[in-house]
């Protein structure tokens, strides 16, 4: 399995809108609705889900279920763009990390594993950035995704995001959700692989770093972490990255302390800590890492396999809020295209290799074969939900606002 690589940051070419009517909100809503409700012509049968027979008039008793099974099975892939409206920065949008900070360089897995100083820097920035993520809530687009799942318009979700918003909202029974790059809601021990709740870890960091805790409280008082607007937050002296950490030049990270894995501590003689349980530079075990896939780290084989199964089982693939600059996401869209499956893209700005996904698609198709739009998902998806519910006579329960705290129960799942 290839390791996570830094996505390339060169500008991507402007997209060709498809169909041309998708250059407006109304046109995009119509095209995306057609994409979701029209059965795929080139359905690839799989073992798990054989192609259903067409219902006849005599089978009226079973009409509803047969109708449901004739609907296309759409896989949704989401990226950072869908969480911008929750106040979380993306990479390449107008306020994105790569756009505003040309020198931004996230930590590599090998640095984190090999260097105590790198871990101090990482956890100090994460300590300050955590509160913002913890208080962030899923937005209109995440709720619309959950509702599309309830309506039967999408069958599975793969997300590149580590904010857990889809995991919080989506019904796991009807809308399985795969977090391709892991999640920030937990830490994981590099030695024993046990996972721990990130908020409990935050409380340990407060205990071990009283001066940093005071600084964090000052940031919270000044409002630097209050606003959900990345631009306002920057104006108040704090920059956050999509990884959930904070940019803070001129700070001595060497003073930051972080705890060892409680399970390994005392059981593994290689765990070196001070009198308070904070890791010291000589430790050879018990190091906790965020449960995200870092750059230079491999995606777990079971996650990679499951993602491919999601693609195989789908008739279509819809991409929302991702430029597919990360190879692990791009290759899934490529796989779907190679299988002859229609691809739709809703993303502001260009998408890596997107012309290749639309080869041979008539420009005047109504969206059912493919569509491409740059409209903001929060203005599109809720209306699409309503249209699909009207067409299919389904309705969904109102999905309430939830925060990351609600994800605690699923942290170990
Ligand atoms: Zn451990």
Automatic annotation (TrEMBL):
<dbReference type="InterPro" id="IPR003000">
    <property type="entry name" value="Sirtuin"/>
</dbReference>
<comment type="similarity">
    <text>Belongs to the sirtuin family. Class I subfamily.</text>
</comment>
<keyword id="KW-0479">Metal-binding</keyword>
<feature type="binding site">
    <location>
        <position position="192"/>
    </location>
    <ligand>
        <name>Zn(2+)</name>
    </ligand>
</feature>
<feature type="binding site">
    <location>
        <position position="261"/>
    </location>
    <ligand>
        <name>Zn(2+)</name>
    </ligand>
</feature>
<keyword id="KW-0808">Transferase</keyword>
<feature type="domain" description="Deacetylase sirtuin-type">
    <location>
        <begin position="52"/>
        <end position="391"/>
    </location>
</feature>
<protein>
    <submittedName>
        <fullName>DHS-like NAD/FAD-binding domain-containing protein</fullName>
    </submittedName>
</protein>
<feature type="binding site">
    <location>
        <position position="189"/>
    </location>
    <ligand>
        <name>Zn(2+)</name>
    </ligand>
</feature>
<dbReference type="InterPro" id="IPR026591">
    <property type="entry name" value="Sirtuin_cat_small_dom_sf"/>
</dbReference>
<dbReference type="InterPro" id="IPR026590">
    <property type="entry name" value="Ssirtuin_cat_dom"/>
</dbReference>
<keyword id="KW-0520">NAD</keyword>
<keyword id="KW-0862">Zinc</keyword>
<dbReference type="InterPro" id="IPR029035">
    <property type="entry name" value="DHS-like_NAD/FAD-binding_dom"/>
</dbReference>
<feature type="active site" description="Proton acceptor">
    <location>
        <position position="181"/>
    </location>
</feature>
<feature type="region of interest" description="Disordered">
    <location>
        <begin position="42"/>
        <end position="69"/>
    </location>
</feature>
<dbReference type="Pfam" id="PF02146">
    <property type="entry name" value="SIR2"/>
</dbReference>
<dbReference type="InterPro" id="IPR050134">
    <property type="entry name" value="NAD-dep_sirtuin_deacylases"/>
</dbReference>
<feature type="binding site">
    <location>
        <position position="264"/>
    </location>
    <ligand>
        <name>Zn(2+)</name>
    </ligand>
</feature>
<feature type="compositionally biased region" description="Polar residues">
    <location>
        <begin position="59"/>
        <end position="69"/>
    </location>
</feature>
């Amino acid at each position: 399995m290839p390791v996570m690589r830094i996505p390339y940051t060169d500008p991507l070419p402007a997209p060709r809108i498809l169909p041309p009517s998708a250059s407006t909100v109304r046109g995009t809503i119509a095209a995306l609705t057609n994409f979701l409700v029209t059965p795929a012509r080139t359905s690839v049968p799989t073992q798990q889900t054989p192609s259903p027979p067409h219902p006849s008039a005599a089978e009226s008793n079973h009409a509803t279920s047969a109708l449901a099974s004739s609907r296309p099975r759409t896989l949704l892939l989401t990226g950072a763009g869908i969480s911008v409206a929750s106040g979380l920065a993306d990479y390449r949008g107008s306020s994105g990390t790569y756009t505003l900070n040309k020198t931004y360089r996230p930590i590599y897995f090998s640095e984190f594993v090999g260097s105590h100083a790198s871990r101090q820097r990482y956890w100090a920035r994460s300590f300050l950035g955590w509160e913002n993520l913890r208080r962030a809530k899923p937005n209109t687009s995440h709720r619309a995704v959950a509702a599309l799942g309830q309506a039967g318009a999408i069958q599975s979700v793969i997300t590149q995001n580590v904010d857990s918003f889809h995991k919080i909202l989506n019904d796991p029974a009807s809308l399985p959700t795969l977090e391709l790059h892991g999640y920030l809601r937990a830490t994981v021990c590099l030695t024993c692989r046990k996972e721990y709740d990130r908020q409990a870890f935050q409380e340990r960091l407060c205990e071990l770093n009283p001066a940093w805790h005071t600084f964090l409280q000052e940031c919270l008082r000044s409002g630097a972490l209050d606003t959900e607007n990345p631009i306002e937050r920057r104006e108040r002296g704090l920059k956050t990255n999509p990884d959930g950490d904070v940019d803070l030049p001129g700070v001595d990270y060497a003073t930051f302390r972080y705890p060892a894995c409680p399970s390994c501590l005392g059981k593994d003689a290689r765990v070196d800590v001070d009198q308070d349980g904070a890791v010291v530079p000589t430790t050879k075990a018990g190091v906790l890492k965020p449960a995200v896939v870092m750059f230079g780290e491999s995606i777990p084989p079971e996650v990679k396999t499951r993602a491919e199964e999601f693609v195989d089982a789908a008739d279509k693939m819809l991409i929302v809020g991702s430029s597919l600059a990360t190879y692990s996401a791009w290759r899934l869209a490529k796989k779907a295209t190679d299988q002859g499956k229609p691809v739709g893209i809703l993303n502001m700005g260009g998408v890596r290799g997107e012309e290749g996904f639309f080869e041979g698609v008539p420009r005047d198709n109504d969206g059912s074969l493919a569509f491409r739009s740059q409209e903001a998902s929060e203005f599109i998806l809720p209306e699409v939900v309503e249209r699909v519910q009207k067409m299919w006579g389904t309705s969904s329960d109102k999905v309430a606002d939830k925060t990351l705290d609600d994800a605690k129960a699923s942290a170990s799942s």
